[in-house]
Amino acid sequence: MRQQSSTSNFIQAYGAPWWLPGGNLQTIWPALMARRTRGPVPAYRRERWTTPDGDFVDVDFLASEVSAQRPLLVLFHGLEGSSRSHYAEAFADVARRGKLGYAVPHFRGCSGEINLAPRAYHSGDHEEIGWIMAQLRARHAGPVVAVGVSLGGNALLRWAAEAGAAASQNVAAVAAVCSPLDLTAGGQAIGRGFNRAVYTTMFLRTMKPKALGKWAQHPGLFDREALLQARDLYEFDRIFTAPVHGFTSTEDYWSRGSAKPHLHRIRIPALALNAGNDPFVPAASLPRVEEVGPCVTLWQPAQGGHVGFPAGRFPAHVLAMPEAVSGWLLQAAGITRSVPQEWPEFPGTVPAAP
């Protein structure tokens, strides 16, 4: 498969609105204020699946009626995300307009109810991704493509690399959006300055109560008192994520969980989209063309923030990126593109990859 360079149409066309300068504004405004859908708020139906270890995962499906022969778009959310995250609703809207099936599997503990097992989820959770993809493939007759956002994208590409050629049995193409493919670089970046004060505080506000709920289920699972004192993600991962999921330290978790060193092993069409001004993902840590295999396409625009990519007139919308990524996935899977670009409604929307 011929690898596309960073001169794709998306890169050439995308530019954030002038009134949203910088990575932080391009991250925060889209998440809170920009328009997510062209139509109504997506309606979902939920399925609960029992996992091999006796736990459960909740999967939300777009409630609109779609033929089982149509492509299924699967989205793996980011850290503390859900099917109601701004990017998840934007992808749902693109799927609805394109008459695609759409599913959002929730990582354990992210669907609104604490899970049962003495574990949660993490950035390198490729075994969980593999099990979920196998279940979706068994349940759907048509083609399947998948996108992971931030943490979910790293885990998805980590699985694709681990599975190698066998990944094609469950999915035709994958994409990662704004994923910290080098977890060490991302973890260090989010632990400094403005990132620590704003984003780290936001994440810990939900992560710590969930971890404490897990301790209440399984007393002694980790050092509860130390967790109460944790003030950044490095400490949270050292006290909770690493020991609970079989890693020896934060460094061990970040090293073994990172997808970047494994991108050359991917054997299905894969896209890695990262903005150069992402506050969470240092540009210097992004993979270079010579570091990935021929199945991996890199899109690295200068702007976009972290899962932002706002476009259009005030108050902007966040549909440009989902349209482009969904179009790329379908074309990479050999499917005639059926994702409409709503140019009149959303001036500034970028074209999908050729």
Question: What do these coordinates show?
Answer:
- By secondary structure, the chain is an alpha/beta fold.
- It folds into 2 domains: 9-182 and 258-332, Alpha/Beta hydrolase fold, catalytic domain (Rossmann fold, 3-Layer(aba) Sandwich); 197-257, no CATH class.
- Helices cover 36% and strands 12% of the residues.
- It has 11 helices and 8 strands.
- The longest helix is centred in the middle third of the chain and has 25 residues, at 193-217.
- The model is unreliable at 1-7 and 342-354 (pLDDT under 50).
Radius of gyration: 19 Å
The number of helical runs is: 11
Looking at the structure, the CATH topology of the largest domain is: Rossmann fold
The helix/strand order is HHEEEHEHEHEHHHHHEEH
How are the strands of the biggest sheet laid out side by side? 1-2-4-3-5-6-7-8
Q: Runs with pLDDT <50, length 5+?
A: 1-7, 342-354
CATH superfamily of the largest domain: Alpha/Beta hydrolase fold, catalytic domain
Give the overall shape.
globular
Short description:
With 354 residues, this protein is of the alpha/beta class. It has helices at 9-13, 23-32, 86-97, 126-139, 151-163, 183-190, 193-217, 224-229, 233-244, 250-257, 320-332, and strands spanning 44-50, 56-62, 72-76, 101-105, 144-149, 173-177, 270-273, 296-299.
Set down the secondary structure blueprint.
Layout: H1 9-13, H2 23-32, E1 44-50, E2 56-62, E3 72-76, H3 86-97, E4 101-105, H4 126-139, E5 144-149, H5 151-163, E6 173-177, H6 183-190, H7 193-217, H8 224-229, H9 233-244, H10 250-257, E7 270-273, E8 296-299, H11 320-332
Parallel strand pairs: 3-4, 3-5, 5-6, 6-7, 7-8
Antiparallel strand pairs: 1-2, 2-4
Helix pairs in contact: 4-5, 9-10
